[in-house]
Amino acid sequence: MIKKLLPYMSKYKKAAFLAIFFAVSEAIFELIIPLIMAQIVDVGVQNLDAAYTIKMGILMICIALVSLTCGLQLAKNAAIAGQGLGAELRAAQYRKIQTYSFRNIEKFSTGSLITRLTTDVTSIQNAATIGIKLLVRAPIMLIFACILASSINGELAMIFLVTVPILGCAVGFILSKVRPRFQAMQKCVDKLNTTLQENFIGVRVVKAFVRHEKESEKFKDGNDTLYNAAEKAFSLVVLITPIMQLVMFGSIIAIFWLGGNKIYAGSLAVGEMTSFITYSFQILMSLMMLAMVLMMISRSVASLARIFEVLEEEPDIIDPAEPVTEVANGDIEFRNVCFKYEEESKLNNLDKINITIKSGQTIGIIGGTGSAKTSLVQLIPRLYDATEGEVLVGGVNVKDYHLESLRNSVAMVLQKNTLFSGSIRENLKWGNPDATQEQIEAACEASCANEFIGRLPGEYEMDLGQGGVNVSGGQKQRLCIARALLKKPKVLILDDSTSAVDTATDAKIRAAFARDLKDTTKIIIAQRVISVCEADQIIVMDDGKIVAIGKHDELMETCEIYRDVYTSQQEGAGLSE
């Protein structure tokens, strides 16, 4: 798993190597200090040699300052490497997610993806920052402190043959048990984030249905579940500190007891005893640091596995080896197309679809809820791939196109009108980043968005707020249509995109399409028959199948489903034929 991280550290190798260098340097200088201290006590103080004591004291201060400088450089470079690794992992995940098809995205909840981009990455970058410092420094301190302590007195050093294995076994046991608990805790974070996301996005619905108390209870349940999972994980982690302290204090008591007897017997000098105690603290502190960093790594490994689930997910819609980069025209053909969302499903969402649409035609699609109208048009820009059969645009199978070229030639206004934080102009320029003011105004005139933009404070510079909260549903739809028109597409798909505008405005928009988009293939999915009755062809769908194709008058005579929809809408509007 660690090998997989190395490519993401490539930009920060220098900082990582410098951090390792300064970690080694700091450890070495710290190890020298107890030796100088022993000399001061056993030579300078014992012989009342003030000059020697002062000289060695100054040397010890200088080494301490050098060690401090190394420590500061270590902290700086470790932070650069750790934070850089985190930034690269976030960027890599975000880039990968952008390559996902709808099917790939549906494997992860939005809350889970956010957790992986934030909490999981933070866990890894913290482990990297601290790990670079401690995983290098602690083993050096541990090994050399043991060697130097043994060189002072081998018998006293035998104490560590008991304490080190005890600590090692205790830490190993805790680590083996805590990792699954950290994984469970991260899943609870996913669920809580999903709850928060749904609640914040649907805050108007929550208030409209007076569901705030129920949603608060739902959040409390998720929050309590996370708390319990975290408590279960950290109840093991906290055991490390008392075990460490118990072993450390036991070791110190044993060293004082045995060392005091040796001093009394004259086989150990006071300065040597002082140095030995200092090395003992360094050994035990090194073990404590190792335990802490191993615990962080154990948690980050769980996060790392979740991150690589995102990075290693293979997009199921990719460019072919030799893609076609030019869409000739807006011709569309469905050849015996079948489609289903789940491969395991026994039933197709679309079944045996055969359609031929000529460039420049206006096609209406009508049908009841669940008749797979949206599923049909999503196959045109390859938001999904057909399970069977072929979808052709401009006479070429959509699977043979460069995805960017295909999608730049197909503008789709989805059922859910999505605007982003920023000004109206910034949102419209999603359709064409280089659009001039004249082009923007022309697109807004065609979509009837100019009717309200002029009345808004700041007009095109007005901030829409998160998700376009500062405009109404009908205004959102018109802005989304204008954004699509700025692409100057060869195929324009409106998926029930005028449902929130009145019939007069709907008629104006359709008239503008007929006038300005003569060479563009226009596919209009609508619930209102009036929105499609003037189309060149109307496709009537039911239960994933095409039940009829024709003009309005033909369908009124031959298609019962179409006639029933039309009649019910006329009656509902209080009109008579």
Q: Can you walk me through this structure?
A:
- The protein is α/β, with parallel strands linked by helices and 577 residues long.
- It folds into two domains: 2-311, ABC transporter type 1, transmembrane domain (ABC transporter transmembrane region fold, Up-down Bundle), CATH 1.20.1560.10; 332-415 and 490-572, P-loop containing nucleotide triphosphate hydrolases (Rossmann fold), CATH 3.40.50.300.
- The protein is built from 21 helices and ten strands.
- It has helices at 2-5, 13-45, 50-99, 102-105, 110-117, 119-152, 154-157, 160-201, 203-208, 212-237, 240-265, 270-311, 373-378, 403-409, 424-428, 437-446, 450-453, 473-485, 503-516, 552-558, 560-572; strands at residues 332-339, 350-357, 362-367, 388-393, 396-397, 410-413, 491-495, 521-525, 537-542, 545-550.
- The chain has a six-stranded mixed sheet with strand order 6-7-8-3-9-10. Strands 2-1-4-5 form a four-stranded antiparallel sheet, with no helix packed on it.
